[in-house]
Amino acid sequence: MGDRVGILGGTFDPVHYGHLAAARGAAQVLKLDRLLLVPAGDPWQKGEAVKTPAEDRYAMTLLATAADDTLDSSRLEIDREGPSYTVDTLRALAEIPEYADAELFFVTGADALAGLPTWREYSELLDRATFVGVTRPGHELDVELPQGGGRIKLVTIPEVDISSTLIRRRLADGQQIDGLTTPEVISYIRKRGLYSGSAR
Ligand code: ATP
Ligand code: MG
What we know:
The structure is a single chain. Strands 3-2-1-4-5-6 form a 6-stranded parallel beta sheet. It is built from 7 helices and 6 strands; from the N terminus they run βαβαβαβααββαα. It is of the alpha/beta class. It has helices at 17-29, 54-65, 86-95, 110-113, 122-128, 164-172, 183-192; strands at residues 4-10, 34-39, 71-73, 103-109, 129-134, 152-155. Bound molecules: adenosine-5'-triphosphate (ATP) and magnesium ion (MG).
């Protein structure tokens, strides 16, 4: 049996302590050997356009996971053209020798799992990974999860009430973001002048 490998997809615009808590919590509960943060190249599920370059969003996930032996980040989606469908990501991961024998766990917000049957190639998705919903602050799970024959699970992790939206708003308002994401990410944002101009 291969390693147990988790994938946390997202925009990571920017990555923050909520993401890291979800990642560490899921890794612990699921006994993962590795959990990859996978920034989306072209996030098809987001209503608003993401203006931060994928390279910057990726660089921040790399900085945020550098000191943690279990967490890492992946260029899988940012190196691919077009929209990032989960099924493509799981197929691409299986092509990488390091992950070919891995048991995959796709970690996402619990609410998002309700829509899973509408995702592209739903039945193949369930063949390729176990789908794990983490609970989120302010998001009561009032939806019913689809039946997934054991391939759909929920994990409860301590709540961290931080979102990328909060960070972008604070920066647009000229407020500091200490304690919301790692010092390395904060320095990177400052050096690149990210999020300062637009009121998003
Ligand atoms: P935005 O505010 O732009 O929507 P976000 O903070 O929700 O950003 P995403 O990149 O959309 O961040 O989230 C990636 C994944 O991390 C999603 O599965 C999301 O549910 C989860 N997530 C985000 N913030 C938290 C948090 N504070 N606690 C637990 N999970 C989180
Ligand atoms: Mg979000």
